[in-house]
Amino acid sequence: MVDQYMDEIMKKAEVLIEALPYIQRFNRKIIVVKYGCSAMVDEELKKKVIADVVLLKLTGFKPIIVHGGGKEISRWVAKSGMEPKFVNGLRVTDADTMEIAEMVLNRVNKSLVQMVQELGVKAVGISGKDGGLLHVQKRYSNGEDIGYVGEIDAVNPKVLYDLLENDYLPVVCPIGFDDQFDTFNINADDAACAIAKSMKAEKLAFLTDIEGVYRDFNDKSTLISELRLAEAERFISEGMVGGGMIPKLTNCIDALKEGVSRVHILDGRIPHCLLLEIFTNKGIGTAILNNTEVEYYHE
Question: Which residues pair with 35 in a beta bridge?
Answer without folding.
Answer: 67
